[in-house]
Amino acid sequence: MAISYAAKGLLPATEAAGALKLERLQGASSGDIPRELSNLDVAGQRRLATEVSQQLAGTPSPHRLRDCLQGVLADLAGLRHRWPVSTDLCSEVVVPSPDHHHQQHNNNNYTTNNNNNKTTNNTQQQQQHHNTTITSTQALSTASPSPERERTKIQLARKGSRKQLQIEWVLRVVEKLVAGHPTGHLRALRVTDVGGGKASLAVALGEHFGPEHVEVTVLESSRALVFQGRQRVLQKGLGNVELVVGDASQQSFLDNLGHGSNKNDNNSSNNNNNSSSNNNNNNLQLPPDIVVALHACGGLSDVALALAASSGAACCVCMCCFMAHRDLRVGGVSSQAVWLGLPAAQLTSVLRAASLTAEPSVCISGMHTIAAIRADALLRHWRFPALKALRPGHEDLKAASVPTAISVRVACFPEEYSPCNFAVVGQPQWAKTAPE
């Protein structure tokens, strides 16, 4: 009605501008407003009506939105302070030697390097012992990349292969996680790539470590992507990489984990398209040793972290697309907000802040905040008895330790690799157990 009256010149200019709540009409002459509105077709008038409705409903302007989100982030500043960010290429993780499980340790402690500790000129490091069951590790010291590795990065950057740089970063993190596992030198560790798509990361992991060190399973809900990934694995001739159709957010998947054969994808297409199909029923019978997810969109990051937590596994989960997949069930039962331990409205504001690329400072603070929230949640939910309970009678359990705690950090790879460059990295701490 207001648009119609204003178009006919039946409303004074100031009254028309106020009624329409359009800043661009403020100060217009009485003749300008009818002229502008009369030029609108029906679709244009509908768009204008929608704009008015949104403003009447209180849709915030960009400045109001920024101020609102900054207020929410300010309330969570303590969380970011508790979880400082490692912005280097890859943070060094202090890991046990290959004969770690033969060494004497004080109680159930695992030694980690803290940012406040100084390193000696050799490999000896001043170390901090954690007596608590669940601990958090702040930003760790930086591993100095070799000149050759640096040259490789420059070459890849010039080619525009940012994804390859991200994969290389994850490989370096997984190197530390594999080296830190007490049985990493005795058997192939089970690595689960959640939402691994066409297996770009999984193939890199399989090639880099080889079958003697890792067996990689890509868990992907899209059958089309699984088919494409299997073709890639077949072409590479990798026997330690497989892809299965499955959804880690489903309770049925978690119920089957560690209890019998994989029921998610036992169809014949795997036998035809994957050279490692003979292992298809085995890799998901036991929980993973390491969970990885590269650019896990939105709630998929929480699904991956929940899988690591329930399995007592190490993890490296890189986040992106923060508002996506918010309907996924985390841990098979919880909503995203419940699992993260945050009110839904507050979580939405944090996720919106992390997605606000037009305001870089807000965006970075938002990404840091959600990473810190997820790190806290991983500590809260990580269940170290689960690994022992799900592996009764297996040789790797008899020869190894069981995890008694986990060290977690918020990591960050260079922004040149991707603007969404935050990750949560968790590494179990170990204590020797006597063979059963």
Automatic annotation (TrEMBL):
Pfam family, one: Methyltransf_32
Domain of life per record: Eukaryota
Bias (Polar residues): 134-145
Region (Disordered): 96-158, 255-282
A cellular component term, taken from the record's GO annotations: cytoplasm
Listed InterPro entries: Methyltranfer_dom, SAM-dependent_MTases_sf
Residues covered by the Methyltransferase domain: 162-321
Biased composition (Low complexity): 105-133, 261-282
Protein name: Methyltransferase domain-containing protein
